[in-house]
Amino acid sequence: MEDSRDVLENRTLKRLFLFIYLVPVFGVVPALWTLSRRDSDRKQREVSRVATLIGLAWLIGTLLLTSGVAVTSGENAQSMGISQLLFNSLFTSSYFLSNLWLMVRVWRRQSLDLPGLKRITKYLP
């Protein structure tokens, strides 16, 4: 019977974890867990950083846009609220599409360099 650490050392399983980290919304939790462990490899930490950063950016942006719709009042409240909701849906769609694009890059074994993100992710643990 194999040791549990030997199973986690399997390259295919490690690659599967990279895809799990990039699952929109739900992948942030295992990505944060990987960042908290110090025994993960470099590629796992890189993908976890990117997944966590864009997940948190999406969460903050969605909260701001949703609160903006709730606060909107006045004469143009309805049209302003609809445009904010439309922008929120475009923002969420772009988050999902960017995660899908990153999954394709992981599948092709390419780097996950997003414009402007390299400088930010180097400050994460």
From TrEMBL:
Descriptive protein name: DUF4870 domain-containing protein
Lineage: Bacteria, Bacillati, Cyanobacteriota, Cyanophyceae, Acaryochloridales
Keyword Transmembrane: yes
Keywords in alphabetical order: Membrane, Transmembrane, Transmembrane helix
Origin species: Acaryochloris marina (strain MBIC 11017)
Domain of life: Bacteria
Transmembrane segments: 16-35, 47-65, 85-104
